[in-house]
């Protein structure tokens, strides 16, 4: 019966990884894969995570299921981090946390929840957006649409975005990136968030906020501005949170679906449905990553250590952005690529064309997605001169 099954192209980023491994260029640079890397090109285990795991190993007493919503301690730790310790939403018991296998798992839970409970409603994503958004929502059977986000000059097209939001049918779902927009790095300002919130309220649109990079832009609280604004001012919000990046626990698959309802009673209704979606999807989430996060956030010493490490990671990325633009100054390209320093998070929409990206790969061993999206964490002070020279060459 498998004879009729056709082969499909592999994931573009995974293909880049394989090509990079085979490249014999000693100066090759990987700007494709979307994980944090330190100055040595490694994805380190954070000190706070190591210490938390040591404690868990010593004190763990069972490997039993943790339930479809996950460990209660995980939700109790994550909700204040996302919504704020003084959140009126939390005080009113309007928020529900469902632990998930990564932020991707949370998005799939959200997609299935929407498909089951809001039949006929479409989902609108930014153009561009994280490519897997398309796959996740389409696989759930939800009709997918796009709204503009970046213009032809590689700048945030907020006017176009706002105009499009004002035309979306009432009750549809709008996917917003809380911070560190993937793949562009262009984020909304506080004033722009206010305008978006007003349109969502007026048009009765349901926001689904993808919060994958909390702490990687300006800070844990600063990056949550849009999320908290919507949660405090709208009756209903869906949030998908990830701990992969800010805790560096990519392989532990640790995320959370947060549903916010009008009141505590409605929250219990939607929470019951979230449990069914999780049960039918994977039954119970993996426990270890959530236990790490809980251990860190519930312990003052570990939490302080984690905050310090996260700040180091964020500062390194923001410094590399500025240094990248500075490295292009001798070639007269600093203004052309000034946007890289203005963007936030691990990713940058550089403005490089697909043809330029191909030349960087073929002639210089520099690997990135053909859209021109680069992982800034792949920059280093050692490779910046080489990168600048190569980019100058493909701009001639």
From TrEMBL:
Cofactor section: pyridoxal 5'-phosphate
Domain of life: Bacteria
Pfam families found in the cross-reference section: Aminotran_1_2
Domain Aminotransferase class I/classII large per the UniProt entry, residue ranges: 27-391
Cellular component, GO, one term: cytosol
SUPFAM superfamilies the record matches: PLP-dependent transferases
Keywords tagged on the record: Aminotransferase, Pyridoxal phosphate, Transferase
Ligase keyword on record: no
Transmembrane helix keyword on record: no
InterPro entries to which the protein is assigned, alphabetical: Aminotransferase_I/II_large, Asp_trans, PyrdxlP-dep_Trfase, PyrdxlP-dep_Trfase_major, PyrdxlP-dep_Trfase_small
GO molecular function: identical protein binding; L-aspartate:2-oxoglutarate aminotransferase activity; L-tyrosine-2-oxoglutarate transaminase activity; pyridoxal phosphate binding
A GO biological process held by the record: L-phenylalanine biosynthetic process from chorismate via phenylpyruvate
Assembly and binders: Homodimer.
Sequence similarity: Belongs to the class-I pyridoxal-phosphate-dependent aminotransferase family.
UniProt cross-references to PANTHER family, sorted A to Z: ASPARTATE AMINOTRANSFERASE, ASPARTATE AMINOTRANSFERASE, MITOCHONDRIAL
Name of this protein: Aspartate/tyrosine/aromatic aminotransferase
Organism for this UniProt entry: Vreelandella andesensis
């Amino acid at each position: 019966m498998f004879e009729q099954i056709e082969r499909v192209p592999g994931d573009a980023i995974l293909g880049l990884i394989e090509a990079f491994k085979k490249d014999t260029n000693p100066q090759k640079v990987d700007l494709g894969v979307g994980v944090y890397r330190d100055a040595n090109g490694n994805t380190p285990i954070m000190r706070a995570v190591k210490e938390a795991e040591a404690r868990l190993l010593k004190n763990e007493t069972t490997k039993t299921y943790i339930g479809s919503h996950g460990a209660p301690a995980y939700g109790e730790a994550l909700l204040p981090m996302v919504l704020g310790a003084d959140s009126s939403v939390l005080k009113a018991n309007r928020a529900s946390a469902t632990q998930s296998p990564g932020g991707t798992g949370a998005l799939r839970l959200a997609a299935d929840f929407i498909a089951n409970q809001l039949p006929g409603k479409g989902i609108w994503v930014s153009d561009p957006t994280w490519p897997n958004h398309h796959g996740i929502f389409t696989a759930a059977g939800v009709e997918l649409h796009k709204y503009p986000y970046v213009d032809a000059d590689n700048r945030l097209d907020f006017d176009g975005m706002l105009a499009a939001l004002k035309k979306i049918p009432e009750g549809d779902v709008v996917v917003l990136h809380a911070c560190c927009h993937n793949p562009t790095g262009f984020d909304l300002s506080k004033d722009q968030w206010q305008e978006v919130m007003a349109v969502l309220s007026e048009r009765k649109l349901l926001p689904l906020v993808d919060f994958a990079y909390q702490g990687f832009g300006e800070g844990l609280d600063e990056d949550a501005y849009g999320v908290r604004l919507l949660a405090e001012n709208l009756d209903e919000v869906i949030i998908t949170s990830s701990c992969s990046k800010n805790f560096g626990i990519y392989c532990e698959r640790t995320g959370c679906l947060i549903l916010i309802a009008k009141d505590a009673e409605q929250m219990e209704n939607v929470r019951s449905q979230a449990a069914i979606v999780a049960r039918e999807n994977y039954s119970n989430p993996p426990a270890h990553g959530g236990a790490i996060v809980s251990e860190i956030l519930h312990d003052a010493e570990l939490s302080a250590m984690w905050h310090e490490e996260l700040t180091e990671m964020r500062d390194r990325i923001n410094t590399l952005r500025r240094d990248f633009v500075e490295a292009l100054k001798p070639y007269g390209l600093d203004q052309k690529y000034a946007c890289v320093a203005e963007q936030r998070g691990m990713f940058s929409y550089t403005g490089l064309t697909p043809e330029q990206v191909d030349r960087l790969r073929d002639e210089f061993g520099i690997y990135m997605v053909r859209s021109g999206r680069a992982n800034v964490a792949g920059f280093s002070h050692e490779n910046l001169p080489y990168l600048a020279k190569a980019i100058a060459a493909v701009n001639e």
